[in-house]
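Reopening this one. Same input as before:
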Amino acid sequence: MIVCSCNVLSDHDVRNAVSAASDLPRNPKQIYGCLGCSAECGRCARTIKTIIDEALGACAKECCSGCPHTRHAANDEPAQETASSFALAAC
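Same output, byte for byte:
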C-alpha cells in the first residue's frame, strides 16, 4: 500500500528501512532520510510513525537495556545519549 503519495513510498519501503538501518529510524524524518527523500506535504507522517512503531514492536516506546535495537545494549552507552547521537548517514 502506498503511504506517501508525494514520494511514492509503500508500507513495505518503510518497514524495510526500519529493519535495514544499523541505527533504527524512530521517526518519519529519519525514514525519509534513509530512503533518500524528504517530507513534502506531511500527511503521511502519522501513518509512517505507526508503521515504525509496529515494525519495532515492544521497542517502539522505550528500549530496555538488553534490547538489540539500541547502541545502549552494544556499547553500554546511556539510552538518552544514544537517541541524541543518531546519524542519518548510518542508513
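So the earlier flakiness isn't reproducible anymore. For the record, Residues 45-56 form the longest helix (12 residues).
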